[in-house]
Amino acid sequence: MNIRAFHDFFDCCIGQWTTERTYHYLTHQDVERSRTEFAVAPITQDLKQKVLTDNQYGDVAELADLPGFRLGFHTVSETGEEVSQELRMLFVPKVERDDFLEGDYLRDQAYEESRPIISHFRYGLNTRELLMTTRYTKVVSVDSITLVNPTLRIRRILNYQRPPVDHSPLETVLLAGFGVEQKETEATT
User: Fold this and answer.
1) Which of 99, 119, 181, 189 has its CA 20 to 30 A from that of 58?
2) Burial of residue 48, with CB atoms counted within 10 A of its CB: 0-12 exposed, 13-18 middle, 19 or more buried
3) How many CB atoms lie within 10 A of CB 119?
4) Can you give the pLDDT at residue 189?
5) Cα–Cα distance between 180 and 139 in angstroms, integer?
6) Right CATH number for 4-183 from 1.10.260.40, 2.40.128.20, 3.40.50.300, 1.10.3720.10?
7) Mean pLDDT in each 10-residue stretch from start to end of the chain (189 residues)?
8) Reported pTM
9) Cα–Cα distance for residue pair 37/174, rounded to 1 Å
10) Domain regions of the chain by residue span
11) CB 175 within 8 A of CB 23
């Protein structure tokens, strides 16, 4: 599987980032702004294996070549609420087409629920958009990261009420988040 463009996307993602986001809570018609500082770093093959083991995923060929990362972040909302988390993630491509890759996105810690989780990803080779879909107990989170250039990403987060029947259309939006993510370069630090 030729996933060079996918690796290039993640090569650009490594480093320190600052994000300004706006969240629209549709359940109670509220808007909240926040600022997040986060760091992305590659992980070792042993930690990639641990992410697989934590998710009871089984063996994966060419594990050393798969994109795996540590993500640490600290968010402060405009109300002063603070949230910090650190997790490890691994992307396992399964399908390659002319213009996209898709597969499984594994984390040792989920955002919405405190447990390892396996999600689905789709990466547009021409659009440089990484679309991640996670089915939690009560919501389905669809998270998009579009790499505009090596130091600028656009983020979109939609949380839907999870339908009672899996794979039914996602119709009820509970939260919509939008953000601009800028990489900290040596000139700005």
Assistant:
1) 99
2) buried
3) 20
4) 47
5) 24
6) 2.40.128.20
7) 83 96 95 96 96 95 93 95 95 93 95 91 96 96 97 97 91 97 76
8) 0.92
9) 25
10) 4-183
11) yes
Q: What is the pLDDT of residue 167?
A: 83
Q: What is the helix (H) or strand (E) element at residue 68, kind and residue range?
A: strand 68-77
Q: Which amino acid is at 153?
A: R
Checking DSSP bridges between strand 30-42 and strand 15-25, what pairing results, if any?
antiparallel
Report the C-alpha gap between 140 and 131 in whole angstroms.
13
Specify the pLDDT at position 185. 84
DSSP class of residue 130 equals E
Tokens read off for 17: 């980032």
Cα–Cα distances (Å) from 42 to 95, 122, 162, 175, 187, in that order, read: 23, 20, 32, 30, 23
The reported pLDDT for the residue numbered 187 is: 56
Give the pLDDT confidence score for residue 9 in this predicted structure: 95
